[in-house]
From TrEMBL:
Gene transcribed to yield this protein: spoIIIAG
Source organism per UniProt: Paenibacillus nasutitermitis
Region: Disordered, residue numbers: 51-79, 118-140
Key word Cell wall biogenesis/degradation present: no
Protein name, as recorded: Stage III sporulation protein AG
Keyword set, alphabetical order: Membrane, Transmembrane, Transmembrane helix
Transmembrane annotation, as ranges: 27-47
Biased composition (Polar residues): 118-127
Keyword match Transmembrane: yes
Length: 212
């Protein structure tokens, strides 16, 4: 191989500027050899793209949760109270004379309120002061402190519940077939008003559209 290379250098190096052309040829051969080695290495190695580990955008996640109906637990707790009330009222109203198919929507202001027993401690301090000009000042300071009463069952401590306050109904919407009749509409209003203790101003009864 050395003789072959010397022969090429002899042909290239002839004439004026020969040594310079020889050096250029040597560099070209070196670069070509490096390129050939890289091509061989690349043929034996394969590269795989690494997936990005960047966390998903929080705004996108929240939007997906909103559209999928997975909201906060507050919405679920409201629905768990409203839906049974709607179903119960629908079953009752459908039994009224003149009422056909019906849809009911009930909204509430809050969930059930629980009142627990507390040990109340109250202290009172009265202070009378007089200044040099004869003025008097009477101050009464009252301090209240309460501690929840707990009872134990099977090793677990739970608060002692004294009262449960049902949720207050904000409004009732009723779409009923037959509500276009004044008598039927008054019967529906009266049943809801007395059954749920809701004022008439919070009850809306509208006739249902007849399907053709």
């Amino acid at each position: 191989m050395a003789k072959w290379l010397e022969g090429i250098e002899g042909l290239v190096g002839g004439g004026p500027g020969g040594p310079k052309r020889v050096r250029t040829m040597r560099w070209l051969l070196v670069i070509g050899g490096i390129g050939a080695i890289l091509m061989l290495v690349n043929s034996f190695l394969s590269f795989q793209a690494v997936p990005s580990t960047q966390p998903p955008d929080s705004s996108t996640t929240s939007d997906q949760a909103a559209f999928s109906g997975k909201g906060s637990s507050d919405s679920d707790s409201f629905a768990s109270i409203e839906e049974p009330l709607e179903n119960r009222l629908k079953d009752i109203l459908e039994k009224i004379v003149g009422v056909g198919s019906i849809d009911v929507l009930i909204t509430i202001d809050s969930t059930e309120e629980i009142v627990v027993q507390q040990n109340q401690k109250e202290s009172q301090q009265i202070t009378d002061e007089s200044d040099k000009n004869g003025g008097k000042r009477h101050t009464t300071s009252i301090t209240k402190d309460g501690q929840v009463v707990l009872y134990e069952t099977s090793g677990d401590q739970n608060p002692l519940i004294t009262k449960r306050i049902k949720p207050k109904i904000r409004g009732v919407l009723i779409v009923a077939k037959g509500a276009e009749n004044g008598t039927v509409r008054r019967l529906i209003l009266d049943a809801v008003e007395k059954g749920f203790n809701v004022p008439v101003s919070r009850i809306s009864v509208v006739p249902r559209k007849y399907q053709q």
